Amino acid sequence: MALAATLARDANVLATALAVRDLSHAFGKRLVLSDVSFQVRPSEFTVLLGLNGAGKTTLFSLITRLYDHRSGAIEVFGNPVKAKPSSALARMGVVFQQPTLDLDLTVEQNLYYHASLHGLPRREAGERLTQELARVGIIERRRDKVRHLSGGQRRRVEIARALLHSPSLLLLDEPTVGLDIASRQFLLDHVRKLCREDQLAVLWATHLIDEVGEDSRVIVLHKGRVLGDGTAQEVRSASGANNMQAAFEHLTRDREPRS
Amino acid sequence: MRPIQYLRCLIGIVRREGLRFLNQRGRFVSALVRPLVWLLIFATGFHFVLGVSIIPPYETYIPYEVYIAPGLIGMIQLFNGMQSSLSMVYDREMGSMRTLMISPLPRWFLLSSKLLAGVIVSILQVYVFLAIAWFWEIQPPWWGYFSALPALILSGLMLGALGLLLSSAIRQLENFAGVMNFVIFPMFFASSALYPLWRVKEASLLLYRICEMNPFTHAVELIRFALYGRVNMESAAVVMVSLILFMALAVYGYDPARGLIARKVGE
Q1: For B108-118, how does the pLDDT look when each residue is reduced to its tens digit (9 = 90+)?
Q2: Which domain holds residue A145?
Q3: Which of A27, B6, B125, B213 is deepest in the core (most CB within 10 A)?
């Protein structure tokens, strides 16, 4: 029995890319996250849906351990980010909300830098960056300075960069902000494909409701609380709405956070 | 993480800092022009105003240009230390710092590598400056160029660590002008960079005491002595202690558990 339980638990750990449990965080007296719990599994495109100020960026900062959480737990493939930050960070790729590429360096130089931060040998880094740039369709710009790339192209480079060290969990914080429709669609399609083909676990934070696809899981975060969690279908039916917009409005109107 | 990965990370960070420096032509030129302007204009103008008596490590009367050369080297490193560390704050609201921090390597190592990369860049600038300054009769003995290196590393680390500390502790710096006014100018002028301390003492005892406590004074004196193959033990000790102090505080400031950054980036 004990063995079976252990096996079951291991299988569960293996199947959970990111587990957030009872996470609360405050800046001073202001509570930004309150008892947040959810999971992200491999091959799952999970949309973290919330308005500006919902706590998405704080959540990302805690998961990437920019600073520590004080209560609750965050685990990446079973590695607690506080106790084993190295193992946790090694398995995640991150695209931040703000642009983080060096404008004065070339695409390649930016990617080599990132690969070195993960301790990748230069040759392997070269191979990986060729692959990833080809996948986002900007391999021919590899020697151009990032300054000369459009906003959409820069985002693609950032996605390629986040995947260089072959992470199993990809976090994206409002990756489509400021992009035109075509670039947005490309990013969404590309990341969905990664999810399907590479069994990548994806957490995609956005305030744009139409980025929630039929095949997505949705976590509705509002004023630091998780108000809905399930497939797009489940979230809609739980709130008795027939589209995501209505469901979101229903959820966020009905359940004002306790203060 | 294996040692080889630490090494690759260090090389990557140093390479990036070097590339950034070379790619930003403006920064390269202004880093060189700044001390040269001081040397060619200020020092020439003050040549006859300030008489410099024989003080160690000099063994003869020296022209004012020769006296302020180590001060200008210190200035290069001071600017560089502020710039390379504070660039983490300015670079599009900490974007580049966040990239650095998601590396799985320990944070103290990342910060130290960043620091070292900045120091290497600053030392390159110093030697280019010294090469040009040679034509203005700033000609330390040939071995002085080698014996200065350890001093330059130590002073560069100390000033870089100070920049790192400021970048972790200061919530928001509007622009580089703020750092100029509140850090660079006071440190530079209240030091032995432009005038020997015995002259300062004649003018104001208080200022003299401040200069004496200024770690930048000791960085300059360390370099001044090292250029002539001598070690100023007192200055070396002060610079070393300041380095350890600044670095410890910077690592503390960037410690995820302390939440200094949390307060800073909090929405």
Answers
A1: 899 899 889 98
A2: 101-166
A3: B125
CATH number at residue A205: 3.40.50.300
Q: Is residue A96 part of a domain?
A: no
Q: Name the residue facing B103 among A87, A104, A118 (closest C-beta).
A: A118
**Which of A117, A148, A166 is a domain's end point?**
A166
Contact A100 B98 (CB under 8 A): yes
Chain A with chain B: Cβ pairs closer than 8 A: 116
Encode chain A (259 residues) as per-residue pLDDT tens digits: 566 666 655 555 557 999 999 999 988 788 899 999 999 999 999 999 999 888 998 999 899 988 888 889 999 999 999 999 999 999 999 999 888 888 889 999 999 999 999 999 999 999 999 999 999 999 999 999 999 999 999 999 999 999 999 999 999 999 998 889 999 999 999 999 999 999 999 999 999 988 888 888 999 999 999 998 998 888 888 888 888 888 888 888 865 554 4
Contacts of B2 in chain A (CB under 8 A): 119
Residues of B within 8 A of A144 (CB-CB) are none
Domain end among A151, A166, A181: A166
Q: Where are the domains of chain B?
A: 3-265
A53 contacts in chain B (CB < 8 Å): 267
Closest residue in A to B23 (Cα–Cα): A104
The C-alpha of A165 sits at a distance from chain B's nearest C-alpha, in angstroms, of: 11
What is the ipTM for the molecules in this complex? 0.85
∠ CA(A150), CA(A156), CA(A162), 5° rounding?
140
Q: State the nearest Cα–Cα gap between B83 and chain A, in angstroms.
A: 15
Which token pair is A225? Answer: 């609380």
Instruction: Say whether A85 and B266 touch across the interface (CB within 8 A).
Output: no
Query: What pTM was computed for the model?
Result: 0.85
Q: What is the pLDDT of residues A217-242, one digit of tens each?
A: 999 999 999 998 998 888 888 888 88
Angle, in degrees to the nearest 10, between helices B107-133 and B64-90 = 150
CA angle B35-B37-B42, nearest 5°? 105
Look at residue A242 and tell me if it is in a domain. yes
Q: Do B9 and A117 touch (CB under 8 A)?
A: yes
A100 and B92 within 8 Å at the Cβ level: the answer is yes
In a domain, A259, yes or no: no
Of A65, A86, A118, the CB nearest to B256: A65
Partners of A67 on chain B (C-beta within 8 Å) are 256-259, 261-262
Answer yes or no: do A74 and A154 share one domain.
no
